[in-house]
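Try this one yourself first.
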């Protein structure tokens, strides 16, 4: 009896990835039935990223093994990308949060289980969190001003953030 290994069918996910080097643009190959967050949260310390544009480089790099610990933000660039597994979180409410990263503040909406504090939600999170309707602004910058980067959806590597603040008046502000 032979047991043949069948590799999973893959789909592509183009993305912009913020690292200490700056924004990289490339493609992840993800098992077709897996969400982007599940893929990014897998145990491997290396994320395979192909056809990568590296800041200040003229040529595409065929392959970069991104160290998970160097990834701060991931912006999927395909509108139909399967970001999360449908129904993964249960009944949620959106909370306005600010995520502190070295280059600025990412402000957006975080889906949190109903009747769960943001602090408790973050304690239970495994690595990645999804913000919707988000912006990235440098410290001290006007969040509505010029030079602000806007995201429909952005995935935040919680292992690389300085902290997460819940906006005043955003639902349940009990810490």
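Now uncover the answer:
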């Amino acid at each position: 009896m032979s047991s043949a290994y069948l590799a999973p069918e893959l789909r592509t996910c183009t993305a912009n990835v913020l690292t200490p080097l700056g924004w990289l643009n490339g493609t992840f190959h993800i098992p077709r039935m897996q969400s982007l967050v599940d893929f990014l949260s897998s145990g491997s310390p290396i994320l395979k990223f192909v056809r990568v544009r590296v800041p200040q480089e003229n040529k595409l790099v065929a392959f970069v093994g991104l160290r998970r610990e160097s990834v701060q933000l991931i912006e999927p660039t395909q509108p139909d990308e399967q970001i999360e597994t449908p129904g993964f979180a249960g009944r949620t409410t959106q909370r306005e949060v600010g995520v502190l990263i070295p280059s600025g503040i990412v402000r957006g909406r975080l889906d949190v289980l109903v009747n769960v504090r943001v602090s408790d939600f973050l304690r239970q999170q495994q690595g990645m969190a999804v913000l919707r309707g988000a912006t990235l602004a440098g410290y001290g910058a006007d969040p509505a001003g010029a030079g602000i980067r806007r995201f429909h959806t952005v995935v935040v590597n919680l292992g690389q953030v300085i902290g997460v603040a819940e906006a005043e008046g955003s639902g349940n502000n009990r810490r």
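Discussion: The chain is about 5% helix and 45% strand. The CA atoms of residues 53 and 126 lie 28 Å apart.
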